[in-house]
Amino acid sequence: MFVNESLSKVDGLKAERDRYVSLAFCWADLLFEIDRSFNIVFVSGATQAFFGRSPESLIGSSFRDLIAPADIPMVGQALKKILKTGRIHEEVLRVVGPDAAILWVSMSAYCLDAANGNLFIGLKKSSQAAKMASLSYPRDDKSGLFDSGSFAELAADRLKKIQAAGESAEVTLVSIPEMKELHERLDAQSSDALQRSVGEFLKANSMGGDSAAQVAEGRYSIMHAAGTRISDVVGQIEQLTRKADPSGQGLRVESATMTMDAGADISEEDLTKGLLYTLNKFRVADGEGVSLADLTTNMTSLVGEAVSEVNNFKHVVSSQEFYVALQPIVHINTGDIHHYEALVRFDAKPGESPFKTITFAEETGLIHEFDLAMAKKVIEWLTKFPRNNDKYRVAVNVSGFSIGKPVYVDALMKLLKANDWTQGKLMFEITESSRMSDLDAANNFIHTLRKQGYHVCLDDFGAGAASFQYLSVLDVDVVKLDGSAVKNAQKATKGRAFLSALTELCRRMNVETIAEMVDTPDTLEFCRDCGCNYVQGYLFGKPSREIKDFNPLPQITLFKKGNTVKL
Asked: Are the beta carbons of 47 and 55 closer than 8 angstroms?
């Protein structure tokens, strides 16, 4: 009897030691000890403040029951990781507090005996927890949600970790077909409020409280725990639109859920590609014959389609199954062609816009490979003319995404060094500037090109609020005024004053301007009155691989000769 009592005391002291060692490690407001089935065997700390319950009432219940449902798979994955690593530190999650209130907490955990011992978990409140979850990913200013690229990376990472832990999760696409029409009926304040409320609701029901994205206007994606009642999510979003709608009618919400095979052996990189592939399809669903129902499929199938598309695109690039189509940039007063923009056309898709293919390359991280191939193609085209002839100058596009790729920058610099005769004949036009996350690095890239004798143009200027930030930071030679901005200025009452002020700002900064989408004589005259330096558009011919199509220049009679070209 004495021996049994002694052993019992020793075991008790050992258990207490283990718990306090864990508490010292966790430095938490709450300490749990759970067994391998995640049942609570001991708890100490501020349980009343966290859960509105006493410590005794929690003994024997499942630790999972305290976690916000959307975060259960993620927590399961984290706890199983302890058995391999021995500890985890500052994992961000949400727990369900009194009256179903959601609390953001940081979780640290420790396992003294990976073979047989229990797990010790420390929880502490953290005002920074919600921010810690997604510091490395940019968000949309209005909805607070990720863009497609950030979401795909984050979701792929979490899906793989959750799968490895034997848990499961799903990705659901949510569509509100008439969201644009509702926003047009609302004032700016109400419209912004609706976007925020939908964004906050999706985040609240997503895994980790941040696994949601805005793919396009009225189109969203959300990663959530398997078994989540999506019908409830849809119903709540419909209710949000009813509250915002002046008529009280609200909007219809549709959804499509994708699952992932438990045993699917898919790399994180390929899973990211599959998600991006799906989100790209979702972005243009209905408009191009793809319905939301078509996207309700297994992720394994989507990954297979994405990998196939990636391999096909890489083959097109490596085999150079594309050609350069040229479109002239014309002096607004003289009609003289200063240079041509090099636009891509794919051999396998004659007559079809390359927009989808280029977008796919951007979203799947392949655009830098294509940008380099396009630069090589343009240099090859320039070799057809004498090197001492500067009559033909060509601007080649560079995605803002590519600028952030050291492998692209290094390869381009080597290409230019090997072809230094292209100075004065080759220009660079930065497209998709919104993808430039590091403006200082982008400006260094621009300075390097300019020092080597290459002019640099910033495309899509005026298409977004960030354009003026780019202009203030990036030392470019030219900005190209986005075609939609030109058209809108032509229609708006104050449009002429706005565009004139913009071109005057550029002039004061010694930056010249090119107006896009100049397709009619009226638009040409409007741009001339507003002080634009150059124009580009169908008025002077559609893009063509034949340079002779622009000699003589179509509509040359609209110009007055005698002015000089400065660019």
From this structure: yes
